[in-house]
Amino acid sequence: MQSPAGVVAITRHVKPGSEAVFEEAVRGVILAASTFPGYAGGEVLYPTTKRGEWQLILRFDTLVHLQEWEESPICQGWIARADAITIGDPKVLRVNGLEAWFVLPEVPNALPPPKWKTAIVSAIGIYPVISLMPILLKPITNGLPAWLATLVSIAIMMPLMTWVIMPQVTRLFKPWLYPPDAKHLAHKSSNSNPN
């Protein structure tokens, strides 16, 4: 059985005037993490307001590889650098698989929505992409073997879903995914597991 992927979402408040330095720092974190075994991607979710929260999401192919990164002196050095330009303790949430699509900085420290809701919203995001992508890619994939055409489509679709489509769809459905009266805040502990 394959080990589950390791995904961590770290949310921080940046000291006023330190935004550019913090942005440079999180880009450095992503670059440093990318040199570690099992690195599968990283992204920065920018605050929606000047005083909002920044969120860094890092993905590794296994929980073991994520833990190796987090325990490394390089990671600890980046944490110390971030501590100097942020306010308060970071909020750390560990998620598995596609749950990372549903982590929003404007809903801090919240557990991902119920799986049935994430399935519906994922389908809403995926449907137009899988419907239109083959048509749009036909000039490129026409004449390729089916397996290679599928590989090209997936190589384009997954980053598009992860960094463009799903963050927007999740924000669009935020009131339904994260109703104000829902009591589903995660523990601040870095060992918290939403499942």
Question: Would you kindly provide a written description of the structure presented here, covering whatever features stand out?
Answer:
This protein has 195 residues and is α+β, with helices and mostly antiparallel strands. The protein is 48% helix and 17% strand. It has helices at 19-33, 63-70, 73-84, 115-141, 146-172, 174-177, and strands at residues 6-14, 39-45, 53-60, 86-95. The chain has a 4-stranded antiparallel β-sheet with strand order 2-3-1-4, covered by helices on one side. The chain starts with 5 loop residues before the first strand and ends in an 18-residue tail after the last helix.
Strand order of the largest sheet: 2-3-1-4
Radius of gyration using CA atoms only: 18 Å
Please count the helical segments. 6
CA-based shape:
globular
Distance between the termini: 18 Å
Order of helix and strand elements from N to C terminus: EHEEHHEHHH
What's the number of extended β-strand segments?
4
Structural class call reads alpha+beta
Helix content: 40-55%
The biggest sheet amounts to: 4 strands, antiparallel
Mean pLDDT: 79
- Please mark out the parts with pLDDT under 50 across 5 or more consecutive residues, or reply none: 182-195
Strand content: 15-25%
